[in-house]
């Protein structure tokens, strides 16, 4: 048992508690006191996990787990070089669970693995830093919340804006009435995503253990239908959650946080499609390998508050209205959150920059500064106090949950292709604090500007879903309830919240 675990089992004596919470850096003075970390998944994002734990003197990376041996070896080499000590190199995460030198796991696997990895780790007594979206479906998010509570583990979700000084200060400004009364926020993911290539039958990279990669998801045949094996799983719903569940959880989280919403929405409706790639490839028969929406608008009703989330994957130059252009600039991606207050607007523009405007769009306050989200995780691991955490499992569950609920509405209505007029007539009646008609009109203009023929390739209108936020079930659409979970492969079952 490492010193950290031993401390946990000994409980928090007054002296230890004081020393741990007052300055966890004190503990890092002794090499024996380092927190042993296993990094699970070392593709793109896993590299940032590695850098963060390498830089923090309170932690030591003791294991690298990756089902791609090339990634694992490359990462272990880099760690050995910087840390002076080679970590264990493993393909199967279950091997770190009973390793007493590992106090915490930090995972950046594909989304379909997040929850099971986190639950297993916490059941084994480890703390867990889990990338966003914390889950692949609603039931998995609940399981993580329950596991953190039951096993008294620190479970931090990787929405790093929660540790950003700019965003923290801006949310405080909002809470103090800086822009008056606020009941509506709009999340934007206007982020160009090109086609991922034609749907096909592609070889799995030789270095990848595809059984372990698939884990809780089905073991498919053909084994890969996308050209690029890594990363592009984001756009295949068996593994990813589209951009609403990729970039989205950063912004859904900030929108919810700023509005002070601590529950799931009560009504949800999405419309959208995976559009524009035939025009992009100049081939009317082109079928892209992705099956998540690249264009999606979701309206979340929280009783007296509304959040609208807009996802756009086609070219977004000059595709917004004048006000959004003024806030984010007309050219290039526009990713952030706009809060609409009775006295002005607050805009999260980047991970480390927010701006408040008055009603005439004069800047009234600017917020700048980033943060150390991994450091915040370590703070809580040492203090053993979840209230020290900036992004708990429950935060992750509610914010990822927004993506899942929006996608369920879209998936259920995917075949319900409607004309713009039909869409307008339905959407204009949906309860919302947004001008639903204007948001639709802007979305339609953007699609047409990108060469999408909406008469030939119409938008899909999702099912309007009523959700019971406490029981986490749909109350008007029984066909939607099975989509709150998935069928798990034997050996990779994620337990439900009451069975963790
Ligand atoms: N917080 C952020 O800003 C941020 C940024 C980028 C990505 N992410 C998140 O990080 C996660 C990973 O994204 P990515 O872009 O690095 O994807 P990626 O496909 O590039 O990397 C995933 C890595 O995980 C490995 N892997 C897959 N299954 C595994 C398993 N069972 N055990 C161990 N390793 C496994 C893969 O071999 C690969 O090396 C995603 O969930 C994504 O949403 C977060």
CATH class group of the largest domain: Alpha Beta
Rg, alpha carbons? 23 Å
Question: By CATH's scheme, which homologous superfamily of the largest domain applies?
Answer: Dihydrodipicolinate Reductase, domain 2
- Largest sheet data: 12 strands, mixed
Percent helix, as a range, is 25-40%
Question: What bound compounds does this protein have?
Answer: nicotinamide-adenine-dinucleotide
Q: What's the total number of strands?
A: 18
The average pLDDT is: 93
| Fraction of residues in β-strands | 15-25%
Residue stretches low in confidence (pLDDT < 50, at least 5 long) are 1-31
Distance between the termini: 23 Å
Number of domains as seen in the coordinates:
2
> Which architecture of the largest domain would the CATH scheme give at its second level?
2-Layer Sandwich
Short structural summary:
This protein has 17 helices and 18 strands. The protein has helices spanning 3-10, 14-22, 24-27, 44-55, 69-83, 94-97, 114-123, 138-150, 165-175, 210-214, 248-259, 277-280, 322-328, 373-383, 393-412, 420-427, 436-449, and strands spanning 35-40, 59-65, 88-90, 104-107, 127-130, 155-157, 182-190, 267-273, 295-301, 306-312, 334-341, 344-350, 353-358, 363-368, 417-418, 459-461, 465-468, 473-474.
Output the keywords.
single chain, 500 residues, alpha/beta, Rossmann fold, Dihydrodipicolinate Reductase, domain 2, 2 domains, twelve-stranded mixed sheet, six-stranded parallel sheet, 17 helices, 18 strands, 33% helix, 19% strand, disordered N terminus, binds nicotinamide-adenine-dinucleotide
């Amino acid at each position: 048992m490492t010193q950290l675990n031993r401390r946990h089992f000994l409980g928090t004596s007054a002296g230890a508690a004081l020393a741990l919470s007052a300055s966890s850096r004190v503990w890092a003075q002794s090499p024996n006191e380092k927190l042993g970390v296993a990094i699970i998944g070392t593709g793109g994002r896993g590299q940032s996990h590695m850098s963060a734990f390498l830089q923090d003197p309170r932690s030591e990376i003791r294991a690298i787990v990756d089902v791609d041996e090339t990634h694992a070896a490359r990462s272990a080499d880099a760690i050995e070089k910087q840390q002076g000590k080679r970590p264990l190199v493993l393909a199967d995460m279950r091997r770190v669970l009973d390793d007493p030198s590992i106090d915490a796991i930090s995972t950046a696997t594909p989304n379909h693995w997040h929850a099971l990895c986190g639950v297993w780790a916490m059941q084994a007594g480890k703390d867990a830093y889990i990338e966003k979206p914390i889950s692949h479906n609603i039931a998995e998010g609940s399981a993580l919340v329950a596991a953190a509570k039951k096993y008294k583990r620190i479970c931090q979700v990787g929405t790093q804006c929660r540790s950003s000084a700019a965003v923290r200060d801006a949310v405080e400004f909002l809470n103090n009435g800086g822009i008056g009364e606020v009941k509506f926020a709009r999340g934007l993911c206007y982020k160009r995503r090109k086609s991922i290539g034609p749907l096909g039958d592609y070889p799995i990279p030789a270095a990848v253990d595809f059984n372990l990669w698939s884990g809780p998801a089905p073991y498919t045949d053909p084994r890969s239908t996308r050209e690029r094996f890594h990363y592009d799983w984001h756009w295949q719903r068996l593994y990813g959650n589209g951009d609403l569940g990729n970039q989205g959880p950063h912004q859904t989280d900030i929108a919810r946080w700023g509005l002070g919403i601590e529950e799931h929405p009560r009504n949800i409706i999405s419309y959208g499609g995976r559009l524009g790639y035939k025009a992009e490839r100049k081939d009317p028969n082109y079928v892209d390998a992705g099956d998540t929406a690249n264009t999606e608008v979701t309206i979340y009703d929280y009783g007296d508050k509304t959040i609208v989330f807009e996802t756009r994957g086609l070219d977004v130059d000059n595709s917004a209205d004048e006000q959004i252009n003024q806030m984010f600039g007309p050219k290039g991606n526009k990713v952030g959150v706009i809060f609409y207050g009775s006295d002005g607007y607050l805009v999260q523009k980047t991970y480390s920059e927010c701006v408040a405007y008055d009603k005439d769009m004069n800047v009234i306050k600017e917020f700048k500064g980033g943060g150390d989200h991994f450091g915040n995780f370590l703070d809580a691991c040492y203090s053993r106090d979840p209230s020290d955490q900036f992004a708990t499992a429950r935060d992750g569950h509610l914010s990822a949950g927004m993506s899942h609920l929006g996608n369920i509405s879209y998936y259920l209505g995917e075949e319900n292709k409607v004309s713009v007029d039909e869409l307008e007539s339905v959407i204009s009646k949906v309860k919302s604090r947004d001008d639903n008609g204007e948001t639709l009109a802007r979305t339609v203009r953007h699609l047409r500007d990108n060469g999408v023929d909406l008469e030939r390739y119409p938008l899909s209108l999702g099912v309007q879903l009523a959700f019971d936020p406490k029981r986490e079930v749909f109350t008007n659409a029984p066909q939607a309830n099975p989509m709150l979970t998935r069928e798990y492969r034997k050996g990779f079952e994620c337990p439900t919240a009451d069975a963790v």
